[in-house]
Amino acid sequence: MVKHKELAARVTRLESFRRYRDEQDFDTATKMREELVREIISPAPSNRKMQMGTAFHTILAQPEKYKFTGYGETTYSADSIVFPQSVIEAAMRHVDYDAVFELPTYKFYSIDDTEILITGTCDHLRGTKLTDFKTRWFEGQQWGVWDDNNLRETYEASYQWRFYCDMFGADEFQYMVFAMRDREPIELVKIKTDIVCVPYQAMSRDIDDLLYDFLHFVRVHDLEPYLQRTEREERILEEAFA
User: Fold this and answer.
1) What is the pLDDT of residue 144?
2) Do residues 140 and 240 lie in contact, with contact meaning Cβ atoms separated by under 8 Å?
3) Residue 169: CA atoms inside 13 Å, Cβ hemisphere, count?
């Protein structure tokens, strides 16, 4: 019997690979490939935009826990990042709080001789509907970036929603996009809530094809040692089977 190799990857990493795989410009794809290999070998620390996004997610899931009132002003703060009351409460009006937040999940996929554990965390689950909160940051009046068709195509092309619908058995995946500026205080510019994706007949095949391409990429670049299961992934498994 051939022993299956055991690898692990997060949904976010697979989406990074998908963007590289689908990039048409040679120079851009070359740069993306180099960055992806470097990130797998030695993950970079989170930058400010990532930290702000994480803080926003944390607050949105439990706003009362991170609400502070002092000197006649109410703010929301997590990890030393402060959001004005108006920003968080405007976002809260679009969130269904009769739901589960920050729910980790996993699924094993078998591709050729390799068993790969895919893990991720769902921002918001209500029944069979998933919602993902996205923060996007920009400066000036770069409204072209927020063209409705541009934004919709960007998220519909993503494999994040495909993996999560497959892993959770969900019927619907909604992207809730919060456009902000990193100012003092942080500004909420626009909220987009109408990007909804649903599973389709060939989705499982498309997922397997992406995983096949990803594993080929991993082998070509000798990255298998960097995709072993981490303590986090082992803990997810232990909790699932407890």
Assistant:
1) 53
2) no
3) 1
DSSP assignment of 156-167 equals HT-SHHHHHHHH
Note the pTM of the prediction, 2 decimals.
0.89
What is d(CA 67, CA 37) in angstroms, rounded to the nearest whole number?
A: 40
The answer to whether 134 and 176 have CB atoms below 8 angstroms apart is yes
Per-residue pLDDT tens over the stretch 110-155: 998 888 999 999 999 999 999 999 998 876 655 555 566 688 899 9
Question: Could you tell me which of 204, 42, 231, 173 has the C-alpha nearest to residue 107?
Answer: 204
pLDDT-based confidence at 240, cuts 50/70/90?
A: low
CA distance 75 to 38: 38
Regarding predicted confidence, which is higher, 75 or 150? 75
Exposure string of 62-89, with b = 16+ CB inside 10 Å and e = fewer, is: ebeebeeeeeeeebbebeebbbbbebbe
- Please count the helices (runs of H) and the strands (runs of E) in the chain: 8, 9
User: 5-46+99-241 maps to which CATH number?
Assistant: 3.90.320
Report the distance separating Cα 188 and Cα 179, nearest Å. 6
CA atoms of 95 and 88, how far apart (whole Å): 11
pLDDT at 236: 67
